[in-house]
Amino acid sequence: MHQTPRADPRRSTGQDLATDPTEAPTAPVATTAPDAPAPSADGRRADTTVRAPGVAAPVTPVPREEWRLSAEVTGFTTLTLEAEPGTTIAVVGPNGAGKTTLLRALLGLTPRAHAGLRLGGLDVTARPPHRRGVAWVPQDGALFPHLSALANTAYGLRAHGVSRAEARRGAREWLDRLGVGHLAHRKPHQVSGGQAQRIALARALAARPRLLLLDEPLAALDQTTRAQVRHTLRRHLDGFGGVCLIVTHDPVEAVSLADRVLVLAAGRALQDASPAEVARNPRSPWVARMLGRNAWPGTFGSDGLKPADGGRLLVAGALPDGAEALAVIAPEAVSVHRERPGGSPRNVWRGTVAEITSLGSRLRVLITSDEAPDLVAEITPQAAAELALADGAPVWTSVKATEVTVVPL
């Protein structure tokens, strides 16, 4: 009996093949659902009915397959994750928060954490990575170095029995969609890092997995290409019947691609909510700063919030004495003056301009102070010119109490 070679468990993509996968149709790969007929290029499942020679298979519409995600993760990363079919979850958090560990636990590729995993009605916990129906695009892409872009992309389809012509057609379609079709016959060492990442993304998307895991898939792309690939990915995810987890540090990706944002810190979930809710009420200083806001964690007292980095902040609302909270201040709510302001602002601090950077048609001014934590203000170039701002210039900043959002921690 012919026996299918087993993939290297260190890679969910089965790097045990040393030949073009179009010549090795039985090699396993973790990019197509196990125990299901292989998909064709248009995402339909192959018909496996045995027929007499010359009898054509009937053409019938196939409804979209849907796979609900249910996972119980323990170890360094500990959380319960439930998601309906078609859900995209952005996973965010500082370095070391456990984001990549979560993805690798769902794949069964790390001893740091273990995931009890159900996809649809199937428990795949005990299965090896290449039999879980999970596609993974790691940060380095993990392309097979000895295969062309076309062969890399066709790998998952061929490994699950799709014909050579069908697999290559599907692979070329995805390469074209992601703007790298002209690189179909190049090896990974012959393309740029951004191009390699798009090829890796095409390989994952071509095989129609039940669960799609993307670890910063757009990080290596330039601004224009990133927007184009993001649009293509969004269109695909709109029709995807599984669940997608995407690790990102880009707030635009989190807002434009995700239905939910999962915030991790030290392996625990701090927040799991819609992008709009996370933007309004971030429960992590890191997330607030990722979204471009000032974030001051502190403790409430009788005279307002006492930031952990010193100073005092008056706010419109109140919390019980001793309550931990996060004060969030939008940069555009920070006023900059050359003289101490009078009038309504209740929060006024003396400071020094530390840095001025451009953000589109506006400027972001970083101001340090001995009286309060660092503060970022967003102003127009005209205002900066009128104030004669420059690095090292002494300034005053003010924030109205009503402009401060307080999030209990």
Question: How would you describe this structure to a colleague?
Answer:
Residues 50-291 form the ABC transporter domain. Residues 1-13 have a biased composition (Basic and acidic residues). Residues 18-41 have a biased composition (Low complexity). This is ABC transporter ATP-binding protein. Residues 1-55 are annotated as: Disordered. By secondary structure, this protein is α+β, with helices and mostly antiparallel strands. It has three domains: 69-280, P-loop containing nucleotide triphosphate hydrolases (Rossmann fold, 3-Layer(aba) Sandwich); 285-328, no CATH class; 331-408, RNA polymerase II/Efflux pump adaptor protein, barrel-sandwich hybrid domain (OB fold (Dihydrolipoamide Acetyltransferase, E2P), Beta Barrel). It is built from nine helices and 19 strands. It has a six-stranded mixed β-sheet, with helices on both faces. A five-stranded antiparallel β-sheet has the order 14-18-15-16-17. β9 and β10 (268-273) form a beta hairpin. α2 (149-159) packs across α3 and α3 crosses α4. The longest helix has 16 residues, at 223-238. The protein is elongated, with a radius of gyration of 26 Å. Mean pLDDT is 83; it is low at 1-62.
